[in-house]
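User: Can you predict the 3D structure for this chain?
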Amino acid sequence: MRRDDPPRGPRKPPGSPYGAGGGQRGPGAARGDGGPGQRGPGRPSGQGGQGGQGRPAAPAAPAAPAGAGAPGGGEAQGPWRERGGSHHPHSREQRRDQRARHDEDEHDERPHGRHLEHHERHERGYRRLDDDDQGEPGAPHPQRARRDAELRLYGLNAVRAVFARRPQALRKLYLDAPRIPQLQPLLAWCVANRVGYRVVESADLDKLAASGHHEGVVAEVLREEPAPLSNWLRDLPAGPQLALWLDGVGNPHNLGAILRSAAHFGVAAVLLPKDSTLALSGAAARVAEGGAEAVPMVRLGRSDNAVAQLRSSGFELAATVVDGGENLFAAPLPPRLIYVLGAEGGGMDRELAAACDRRLSIPGTGRVESLNVAAATAVLLAAWQARR
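Assistant: Here is the predicted structure, written as structure tokens:
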């Protein structure tokens, strides 16, 4: 037996479609007739047998009783098939020829060969399944890293603000047809810089934005990462400066309203604690109405180190509290000031509040417990601006 021959199976008994006298039928042959076998390519015809190899045919098996064939009738089945024997549609010689042709195809180095294209498609699919194993241990998945680096904005003023300040951050644009006249400069820039845009239905924009407040435009842009505190202090101009330290604020709509007020009053930055998960989202950018591009975000280090750095740059820190602080409208407000704002309900960290230079409260009628953090921010900023 040659090395490339398959292992020999059990001998087929007479009457089997692949035993002696029951060769493979050619196209159009009657089922169960036990006629001569199909000839393989280029082989001389013989009398029956497998593949027409020229061996004398064995006596024909008795005719199978009616209804004893395969499902659908016709072809007789031997007992070896009932016991689960091999049912291969080709003879051993045909299978050997197929393997030989397959080996030749594998060694075909034509760059556009059909086999090579199939192999490349298979490899691409295999690599996609194994993307999680790529790169350094603990590194983010490439697609996940790309999603983290991009932000889906919506709202007319939010998208216009990105285009005005950093157009190179635009990656894709989707818009409703009625917005085309208002966004002509942006569309012309997209065409000139090969940035894809698509006119879609309003229902598609609802899905893209996961909101009905998209105002007819959605954009995918590169996210701008917060700057380190030391870099921000280094580049900060001299003179009066005001910044906000957000300790525990997490609602995106509150963040958007804070950014809108901050842009209106000329706030220098929004400071985020080291472990804060607060980040700009599409909803926050839409509520900010373009203010998200006007006010930079700064990432702090350890709270005690951040307080020391800010004080060394001439800033005072003012903790804003509901009760027990100085009257905002009567207290002196320094030219370089940091308002420290806590989350609604929980307030700010007690150690941080104790480390601040002063405590300020907004006086009111007492008919409500306090102002919303975004509304309180607007009042605080207006009070500081009134002193300048």
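The domain at 145-222 is CATH 3.30.1330.30 (60s Ribosomal Protein L30; Chain: A;). The two ends are 101 Å apart (CA to CA).
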